[in-house]
Design goal:
about 240 residues
Length: about 240
């Protein structure tokens, strides 16, 4: 993993498509966090099956080894525990774990499937998480698992996604939601992005910096129906 990004991020947006399509952008997301980080990653993800909000105290097996769960943190969040929900195939979580295991071998994780992603739900979840992790915030980094536009022409994806991402330049979540609605941007993890930004702001972040943007068309050569991928660092 040799991508370079914005160092010192409190949180990052990371895609979760197949590595062939979004792996380069994922690498640029994780490059924004010090490789010596050995704390806890709070991985907030959308559920493609409508599950959540829930968390888990299970360790995660990967082809590169096991990623340990910070079970104390998981229990402290006050979010329902559902190990069964985590065992259901969920690429928004699963694809993050090998990256974390490879680049941060001493780090632990706490997965959160968000459930409803509206603004009020994001604000409530962010408050609940902050009440649990606030004192330990220096040892925590937030991962928001999300792709952006789905199955639209590449020029539409670039225009719509760029517009929505622009609202994150100063971590303005109200504007982010407004822009998503205006352009009907089909980002699957907009709620996790909002929660990450809200938490990162409390941790000291003042801006969201776009590190890299690509679409699936950059891999397949088919730009007629693409998915957008962005790495964004809250710094």
């Amino acid at each position: 993993m040799h991508a370079s990004g914005e160092p010192g991020a409190y949180g990052v947006v990371v895609p979760h498509a197949g590595y062939l399509y979004s792996g380069q952008v994922m690498a640029s997301s994780y490059s924004c966090i010090d490789p010596d980080f050995s704390g806890t990653f709070l991985v907030i993800a959308p559920s493609h099956r409508g599950l959540g909000p829930c968390t888990s105290d299970l360790d995660w097996g990967t082809p590169l080894g096991t990623v340990s769960c910070d079970s104390d943190c998981a229990h402290a969040l006050g979010i329902p525990l559902s190990n069964q929900a985590m065992e259901v195939e969920e690429n928004s979580l699963e694809l993050q774990m090998p990256f974390i295991r490879y680049r941060f071998p001493d780090a632990r994780v706490v997965p959160v499937l968000m459930g409803s992603q509206g603004f009020a739900h994001a604000q409530s979840l962010a408050n609940q998480i902050w009440n649990a992790i606030g004192p330990d915030a220096p040892n925590i980094r937030i991962i928001a698992s999300s792709d952006f536009s789905h199955y639209v022409p590449a020029d539409v994806a670039v225009q719509n996604d760029t517009y929505a991402i622009g609202a994150l330049s100063d971590l303005d979540i109200s504007s982010f939601y407004q822009r998503l609605g205006e352009y009907n941007v089909s980002a699957c993890g907009y709620g996790p992005i909002a929660v990450m930004a809200m938490l990162a702001r409390r941790m000291g972040a003042t801006s969201g910096k776009l590190i890299q943007y690509m679409t699936s068309g950059d891999t397949t050569g088919d730009y007629s129906q693409v998915v957008g991928y962005a790495s964004i660092a809250a710094v």
